[in-house]
Specification:
Blueprint: H1 3-6, E1 20-22, E2 24-27, H2 31-42, E3 47-50, E4 66-67, H3 75-82, H4 84-107, E5 119-122, H5 126-140, E6 146-149, E7 154-157, E8 161-162, H6 165-179, E9 182-184, E10 189-193, E11 196-199, E12 203-206, E13 209-211, E14 226-235, E15 247-249, E16 254-258, E17 264-268, H7 286-299, E18 305-315, H8 332-342, H9 350-353
Helix pairs in contact: 2-6, 2-8, 3-4
């Protein structure tokens, strides 16, 4: 079990055991599904959320709790991949996501250990270091608060944050319920057809369905989603500060942070076994866990490991979310975009995340 889930007492919702109807059905109660339900309910709809497990139990409860701007790669690489105008739009969109999280946590008094200590991007080789320097130069010209630390081959992004992902998602679920959303856990959707979704025990009639199941989307929709396993470990609290802020290295493949209570979390290292760390099996493996622990011992040799876990992430063909009238949404801002689409809107960023993009 992840540290986040272990620290968060269950808040059970009943399984759906009878036929029903809803304005909108949201499939999945991770951060994407919960945020989508929240925005829909705030707009006056009555969304029904169906979750196969419990709220935030899958990928949303197994990540590192980073709240970063941009994509995993540095801005220069993102510009090459998406074109600089779109890379800037993506950066601004993710900054908006950070501000939305800040606003929602304050509005609903969500106790999720939200902190804004910035983040550290660390170069894994000379090529990445050159890209990072160029990225900071370009982004600072756009007003981004970033700086280079040459002696550490590091870029610091001052406005990034961190939080407790399970407490955030479950707190937002309570806010969504207060606005009119309904959640059913232990309710697995098995099929979708015209005007309805089906579970093992019920049929729900609806005029709209939003699929927010991340790595498992291809079970329900013909999307190009690749399930990939991410692994982590966590330690008992340390009395000394080892890491000042969340950090990620080797093009985002390796990451770590230290919480306010002194616990250290280390994750990633998937680049050591990219062909093995695929599929939907949530299990830890000795090679990756050994690599995580080797890094840990290099910085905190006396730290006691208390938790080890794995989670499954869904990667699209271009590493951006699918958010459209027939697509997958994730994160707070993308979910607001999807909720707008469901209501018939045409948000400005929709073309970036359309499921039928090239």
């Amino acid at each position: 079990m992840s540290l986040w889930l272990d620290e968060s007492p269950p808040e059970p919702r009943p399984a759906l055991d009878h036929d029903a109807s809803a304005d909108v059905v949201v499939i999945g109660a991770g951060v994407a599904g919960v945020a989508t339900a929240y925005w829909l309910a705030r707009a006056g709809a009555r969304p029904l959320v169906l979750e196969a497990r419990t709220i935030a139990e899958a990928a949303s409860g197994r990540n590192a709790g980073f709240l970063l701007a941009g994509v995993a790669e540095n801005f220069l690489v993102a510009s090459r991949r998406y074109g600089e105008p779109n890379a800037l739009r993506i950066w601004r969109f993710t900054r908006r996501n950070q501000e939305l999280v800040r606003e929602l946590v304050a509005r609903h008094r969500i106790d999720c250990d939200l902190r804004w200590h910035g983040s550290a991007q660390i170069a894994g080789d000379d090529e990445e270091w050159a890209e990072m320097r160029a990225s900071v130069e370009r982004l600072t010209s756009e007003g981004v608060r970033a700086r280079i630390v040459p002696e550490e081959r590091t870029a610091i992004y001052e406005d990034d944050g961190e939080l407790h992902p399970v407490r955030y998602v479950r707190g937002l679920a309570r806010a969504a319920e207060a606005a009119g959303a309904t959640f059913h856990e232990r309710t697995c959707v098995t099929a979708m057809d015209a005007g309805a979704v089906r579970t093992g025990r019920a049929r729900v009639s609806t005029s709209a369905v939003v699929v927010c199941v991340n790595a498992y989307a291809s079970h329900l929709l013909p999307l190009r989603i690749r399930p990939v396993r991410g692994q982590m470990l966590a330690t008992a609290p340390l009395r000394r500060r080892v890491f000042a802020r969340p950090a990620y290295a080797h093009r985002g493949y390796r990451y770590w942070r230290q919480r306010e209570d002194g616990r250290i979390l280390v994750g990633g290292w998937r680049d050591l076994a990219v062909d093995v760390e695929v599929g939907e099996e949530e299990r830890t493996t000795e090679p990756i866990q050994s690599a995580l622990e080797t890094f840990l011992r290099g910085h905190a040799p006396d730290a006691a490991v208390t938790h080890r876990w794995a989670g499954i992430m869904g990667f699209s063909h271009d590493a951006l979310p699918y958010a459209g009238r027939h697509g997958l949404a994730f994160a707070t801002a993308a979910s607001a975009l999807v909720a707008d689409l469901v209501r018939g809107g045409s948000p400005a960023e929709a073309d970036l995340f359309a499921p039928d993009r090239p």
